[in-house]
Design brief:
The structure is a single chain. By secondary structure, the protein is mostly beta strands. It has a single domain (16-119), classed as Sandwich (Immunoglobulin-like). The chain is 0% helix and 45% strand. It contains no helices and eight strands. It has strands at 16-27, 33-37, 46-55, 61-70, 74-76, 87-90, 96-105, 110-119. The strands form two sheets. It has a five-stranded antiparallel β-sheet, with no helix packed on it. A three-stranded antiparallel β-sheet has the order 4-7-6, with no helix packed on it. It is elongated, with a radius of gyration of 24 Å.
Length: 142
């Protein structure tokens, strides 16, 4: 009697090859925007997240949903999502994302999605006054 072989697990290859990018948006003195490394950001900086999806399969993909999360500690910049028309979806009390539905992606086609967020102030930090506080002397102190 032969022993039963375990079912072979097959990894299903994704029909999409995806690339994610995060870049800081810098507005120059001339008003022109440039994208640079987002390695060092501070409160108030704007970050552009973009995802490029390429259909690497030999078949047409229909009604594909894509999402880009809005990270905690950031605020979505209204009107910055491209292409236009995504839905803003709340995942829970602290997390949300923008969700796009792309109706058709032909073999070899590339879909690029992007949005911008602004870095929020850290609510756990105490604001520093603009000017140092002057020492307060108590009356009657020697």
């Amino acid at each position: 009697m032969k022993a039963a072989r375990p079912a072979a697990s097959r990894a299903v290859a994704s029909p999409l090859a995806s690339r994610f990018n995060a870049q800081k948006v810098d507005s120059g003195k001339d008003g022109k925007e440039t994208l640079e490394s987002a390695a060092n950001v501070t409160v108030g900086d704007v970050i552009q997240y973009s995802v490029q999806h390429r259909n690497v399969s030999q078949r047409r993909l229909l009604q594909v949903d894509f999402g880009i999360p809005i990270p905690p500690g950031t605020s979505y910049v209204d009107g910055s999502a491209m292409p236009e028309g995504p839905k803003r979806v709340k995942l829970d009390a602290r997390r949300e994302q923008m969700l796009w539905r792309i109706e058709k992606i032909e073999p070899g086609d590339v879909v690029v999605l992007s949005l911008r967020v602004r870095i929020d102030p850290d609510p756990t930090l105490t604001p520093v006054p603009a000017e140092p506080l002057r020492p307060q002397l108590r009356r009657g102190a020697p």
